[in-house]
Input
Amino acid sequence: MAHRRPIHPLALRVMHWLNAIAIVTLIGSGWEIYDASPFLPFTFPQWATIGQWLGGAIAWHLAAIWLLMLNGALYLGWGLVTGHFRRKLLPLSLRAVLRDTIAAARFHLPHRPGVYNAVQRLLYLGVIGLGVLAVLSGLAVWKPVQLWPLSDLFGGFFVSRVIHFIAMAGIVLFLVVHLLLVALVPRVLPAMITGGHLPNPESEAAE
Amino acid sequence: MPALTLNRRNLLGRALALGAATTLTGCDFDDPSHPDVADRVLNAMSHWNDEVQAALFNPHTLAPTFPASAITRPPRFNAFYDIDKAPQVDLATWRLGLTGRIGDKQPWRIAQLRALPQESQITRLICVEGWRVVGQWSGVRLGDFLRRINADTKARYVSFQCADGYFESIDMESALHPQTILALDFLGAPLTAPFGAPLRLRIPTKLGYKNAKSIVALGVTNQFPSGYWEKQGYNWFGGS
Ligand code: HEM
Output
């Protein structure tokens, strides 16, 4: 190879930031939709929502969902075909997660460029699963009649709404931890934007 | 859709201004008749979602039905006005007017509609806001009625005008669905004013706002009739 490979390939960076746009839009508009008929004893503050009123929020939500689904399908396909998931998110063991969690709590989070620690792997696999759950439960809320098998699978219209909400809450929790980890190791951020460079040829060979 | 005059230079200016303030001003969708760039994108996506829902719609898939014990009591009133503002319709003078691609446009009196075969259902109404109620409605199957009045069932839309100024429209496929009825009765008695007397659309394959109340005219047309909430930004197909 004539030049060194980036830590994050271009395709991954583009998909990551498109996904971030979609997720933030979906969370903000989803909160406004929830506020129209809350099932918990609270509503989300208006300033934190997107869409200004129910009709606007639904329009944003059902526009952003196509970005999320298309981009997410590309990411899953790309990750499987290129072996990205196998190389970067696996293997994952409970021991490694415990070890890295304790390290993180002591602010000694191991971080080698291009290698995700066990806490990151768990978080990324978890949020991918939550994203799939959010899309499926969202489809069940959207089409309880036409997609009735999916709606039944989730336990009907109302339970689908609750599961959709739980998936959102999980993604928000992920986002908080995700941003906290980036704040702890800020040098990973430019690499997610420009790609960065893997430090030496050995780590290339190790891939 | 209102005709949009589009000035390219203007649009570019708006796009640039938008770049500076996307999240602040771009997310209104509050004035679809004077759309900014975000409104245009959202409108286009809403049309796309209409197409997807039409493709997902299966004329043989039935909305779930429920036992009488599941009926929501007391029933929940919902409209764009308070309950005491519900339109009072005089049955003696009320007629169902017929317009558009219909062979037999003679207006109908309520007794004539009651003389037709009646269809009863206990179904769930899901509101776009996220809540739902179960109720029992009975009346005339819209598909049967359309055939009886020699409507063009190859036309694209069926539209409804209401006594309170509300208006709605649905796609012909959904209009011909066996559970789509022109309801005369609610919970075993003639409809009362807040619940759409004397005649309302009951369509359990669509969201609540598609279920037009206090209908005074029905039309069959190929021109997109839109609807009261759709003009303000709700999705038109509104399927469940
Ligand atoms: C909005 C602010 C966000 C920032 C600043 C951000 C930042 C980053 C950074 C710096 C990385 C690389 C970490 C490393 O190299 O160690 C990363 C990876 C990742 N982020 Fe984010 N992120 C954001 C939003 C999101 C959202 C909303 C999601 C999903 C719900 C997400 C999911 C992921 C995933 C799954 C990875 C791993 C990608 C892979 O290698 O397959 N991020 N993020």
About this structure: The interface with chain A takes residues 23, 27-30, 41-42, 45-46, 48-49, 53, 56-58, 61-64, 124, 126-132, 204-205, 229, 232-235, 239-240 of chain B (CB under 8 Å).
